What does this fold into?
Amino acid sequence: MKKKVVLLLLTTMVMGNVLTGCGNATSDESSYVTSEETGIEETGIEEIYAEEATEEACVSEYATEEYAADEAPTEACKERSTADCIMEESANPAVDIIGSSEEYNAIDEMGFVAASVNPLSTFSADVDTASYSNLRRMIEDGYAIDDIPDGAVRIEELLNYFDYDYAQPKRGEAFGVTTEIADCPWNENTKIAMIGLNTKDIDFAKAPDSNLVFLLDVSGSMYSEDKLPLLQQSFSMLTENLTKKDKVSIVVYAGDDRVILEGVDGSEQDEILDAINSLEAGGSTAGSKGIITAYELAEEYFIEGGNNRVILATDGDLNVGLTTEEELEELITEKKESGVYLSVLGFGTENIKDNKMETLADKGNGNYAYIDSVKEAKKVLVEEMGATLITVAEDVKFQVEFNPDVVTGYRLIGYENRQLAEQDFVDDTKDAGEVGAGHTVTVLYEIITADTEATYSGTKLKYAEGRKLPNEEWFTVNIRYKEPGEAESGLHSYPVDKKDYVEEASQDMQFAMAVAEFGLVVNDSDYKGEANMRSVIDRLKSIDTKSDEYKDEFCYLVRRLDNNTN
It folds into this structure.
């Protein structure tokens, strides 16, 4: 893991200026002092952001009363540009995380593939969003790009954190599908192909009856304010949206597991809230025992045709019983056969085990979100309640077939840990991702076409049949999924041809490309080409983000990280 370094050493006088708030912070460059000990060259941050400080684009309004007081800019800042606020807020030294025990799985980035050798790209859908909100937490804490742990940034989760205006599903289909091709912003010799999926939103009040088991980590590692107290606020918000048709059980675990509520009607909110608010943290973390007990309760109150789900809230630091990823994967793979889904909510800093939490959600037919604030809890558990809790398509698999006469090479951006073998696409016993009501899924390919100077022919196939496909077709998107509770999948195919290529990309695609480019830069990708933070910032200027508070916040975070780094 990359280690954190202190970026700036500030004098007592400078700290005094900063603590008075954005409105009183001085614009004198002397406020941004340097030290010979740091070796950091003196930089006028005001000059770097002089252009952005006067423009209206990407002026963040994300700080609302729903943010904690220490997260939100002062009232004076709200009247000014995002760049000014970033400049002044980031004068605080970054937090030193040397000794942090956070764990992430390494990402083995995918390179270009020759379409003549392997025209099929096969992978599982992913609607997890934990990587984005976890990255947001790091940026807000003052991390520079080099401080972000390897494996923490999964580009597909950044892309899928946001909503897009994709086509609605047609009658009888779970997904509406949108496709678009445009020139690549970071490589003049390639293009970007976008595939967007959209499911119908659902009114949770009209959703199937729910049998929910809250599996809550109350071990000693959950003691801090950003863990158990935030967990209690989060589940309190979820509880306030339940009704009498819902059943709720609560299992807690520390050194051992304990059932504190069993099969209570969702309308009994006072009883549920009292149980949640009475929790205290302490002890070791016997997570596997808690998981087993939670599944037993979910099976006891199982609702045929209903939404049967365990919601695990933890920092992932399991240290008693089954603790390795392999052991947890085996346990969850066995338990999911009961028809009970498992969703995972991550909390906290410094010792979060992202790798274990991602594995649990992926193998448990659920989704994985990271809760870094009350506002994120509201997004996941209230605003997107249907998407979080109601599955509309199971084992969703993609298989994109490229026409080698048009596309000579391709590279899937992200989804590295979602890859499937070609034969897995038609094998209904092979697990894949689940998609909830109201979810959007965004997939980006960087492609090389035969009419560009940069070609990618790869190895010639001596014994290939040489079957010619229609030259107007660039590729075909094949999607296979099961209806909830069904054992057999159905196939839906969507050809994509030259009509999908546009000279000027749509707002959705422009934003998706900005997010992807940002991810390439943060990950220092081998395929980032000319990608850089300035390019991302410039692209965001041309996009209307004001109508979407989360996209507007992304503008702020890009600038904040750039400022943390430079």
About this structure: The CA atoms of residues 188 and 530 lie 9 Å apart. The first strand starts at residue 113 and ends at 114.
